[in-house]
Amino acid sequence: LDLLLTVAGAVVWVPVVRAVALAVLVSEGRPVFYRSRRRVSSDEVVLLTKFRTMVRNADKLVNRDTVPVASDTRFLNIPADSPLYTRIGRFVERFALTELPQLWHVLRGDMSVVGNRPLPQNVIDCLREEYPQVSDRFLTRAGLTGPAQLVGREALTDGERLELEAAYCRACLDGYQAKLDVVILAATIFGVLG
User: Which one of 9, 143, 158, 177 is most buried, counting C-beta atoms within 10 A?
Assistant: First the structure.
């Protein structure tokens, strides 16, 4: 399903990646992409690529090592109105284009189109302090979009999000992955379109 969707959709996503890359380059300069190591499964960490939507070196300013845990939120969700976002970055985020370059990782087999989002190790370590079962969200391969994105990441507590992500993994392991993935992908597309 991942390969079919990615290859069939290339007529759309490849030109969009090129257009967004050019827009980021013209408006913000280099680097166009942001790369960071993220856990994509229970035993694999990959150097993932996405569009740079924030000011240069934003990852040094705001990360789980530098920002204290507030309101019991261990996931690092940057608010949409954060001054760290560039003007073009807000547009890219609003239309959920940030992760489109990760379709390359889907083609390579590092990720799926649908799955729980990959996480940096410092966020996983922070979550593990209160939620030792955090590894359950990695029972299936990470994806570009997933169940938590449909209900709004910020609308969920850490515990609710981890419970939802683990339930998704269990459902996939019980044989419902294709059906679930199609529903989640369709809901994501409709959500982006408003």
Answer: 143
Q: How far apart are CA 153 and CA 147, in angstroms?
A: 9
Q: Which of 77, 76, 28, 75 is nearest to 52 (CA)?
A: 28
Residues 6+ away with beta carbon under 8 Å from 182 = 1
Strand partners of residue 33? 51
Q: Which two tokens stand for residue 140?
A: 């299936």
Encode pLDDT of 163-177 as tens digits.
999 999 999 999 877
Identify the H or E element spanning 148.
helix 147-151
Ordered DSSP codes for 154-191: GGS-HHHHHHHHHHHHHHIIIIIHHHHHHHHHHHHHHH
Say what the pTM is.
0.86
Phi, psi torsion values for 113, nearest 5 degrees:
-70, -40
Place of tokens 């507590």: 157
